Amino acid sequence: MEKKSRRILVVGALLLAIWALSVNADDSEKTIVKTVKGKKMCTRGWECKDWSIYCCNQTISDFFQTYQFENLFSKRNSPVAHAVGFWDYQSFIMASALFQPLGFGTTGGKLMQMKEIAAFFGHVGSKTTCGYGVATGGPLAWGLCYNKEMSPSQSYCDDFYKYTYPCSPGAEYYGRGALPIYWNYNYGAIGEGIKADLLNHPEYIEQNATLAFQAAIWRWMTPIKKSQPSAHDAFVGNWKPTKNDTLAKRVPGFGATMNILYGDLVCGQGDIDAMNNIISHYQYYLDLMGVGREEAGPHDVLTCAEQIPFNPSNSNPTASS
Ligand SMILES: *[C@@H]1O[C@H](CO)[C@@H](O)[C@H](O)[C@H]1NC(C)=O
Ligand SMILES: *[C@@H]1O[C@H](CO)[C@@H](O)[C@H](O)[C@H]1NC(C)=O
Ligand SMILES: *[C@@H]1O[C@H](CO)[C@@H](O)[C@H](O)[C@H]1NC(C)=O
């Protein structure tokens, strides 16, 4: 008896040592710091591997882990979903690594970092949901149900761009991805952004979740027009509104991200369902991440009901649909 319990103790100690070793192996994620012209710059493992001021902060996987992704998108692999097995946490984190050194999910301290992930997913969830009023788990539990448009009515080839983004023979530019991409010119521009030949191979987006998330984060991080803020800049507070913006009731926050991404399809129309559905997803994710929806801030920051669109849809075909 004595001997046996001692053996268990030894085995236990050994297991503990192995566990401690494997925890130590995570030190690849340790922050390395240097100072460049008085500015603190860091790298932090594979997830934030360019020298950047943003890599001095926590990385996304420090505060957003697999179980949280599973909570947010709990119904995506249920049998009635339309992209079963496609979307996963690993693809999201891999894709985010391209953008964390630029500030995606790494700006402004932990609360802002968590809010940005919830906001980004608020858009993603509302654009990829198949949830409806009486769906099990509630309508908000069905984000990432799709990875493509199911019955496209056309191939979304706009001949106006035949010199810049010519449609590839046989390619179909219907909606695909986490923030669905439509039209040849959007596939072309986003493909340039993430260095993938999406103009000739739009199908990559429905075949590779990492690429699909990369495309969505690129859209979030990149202004539609050079003179305008990206959704990221508008959300984290990098963007300082001009006098015109103030007159147009455009203020930094979640509302402005909807204005940037969807313009008058969602904003400046009063209290419409299309807008409230996106906001509801954002609030739901804030709750599930333990941040709490009250952190979303006051109504005029959260909505875009009264905002004049940055880009009216009839004069700007590159506005995301
Ligand atoms: C990093 O986080 C701190 C708070 O922990 C914040 O004050 C700072 O602005 C963040 N750095 C960047 C570059 O956003
Ligand atoms: C998916 O895309 C990523 C990013 O470009 C790439 O690293 C990866 O190899 C691709 N996966 C497959 C299975 O092709
Ligand atoms: C402000 O708005 C006016 C009127 O719409 C426009 O003519 C002007 O160019 C705008 N200014 C800037 C800096 O965008």
Automatic annotation (TrEMBL):
Classification via InterPro entries: Glyco_hydro_19, Glyco_hydro_19_cat, Lysozyme-like_dom_sf
Domain Glycoside hydrolase family 19 catalytic: start-end pairs: 68-294
Disulphide linkage map: 157-167, 267-304
Range of residues in the leader sequence: 1-25
GO molecular function, one term: chitinase activity
Keyword Transport among record annotations: no
Keywords: Chitin-binding, Disulfide bond, Plant defense, Signal
SUPFAM superfamilies per the UniProt record, alphabetical: Lysozyme-like (SSF53955)
Domain of life where this protein originates: Eukaryota
Annotated CDD domains: chitinase_GH19
Keyword Signal listed: yes
GO biological process: carbohydrate metabolic process; cell wall macromolecule catabolic process; chitin catabolic process; defense response
Family, similarity comment: Belongs to the glycosyl hydrolase 19 family. Chitinase class I subfamily.
PANTHER family: CHITINASE-RELATED, GLYCOSIDE HYDROLASE, FAMILY 19
This protein's name: Glycoside hydrolase family 19 catalytic domain-containing protein
Gene source species: Manihot esculenta
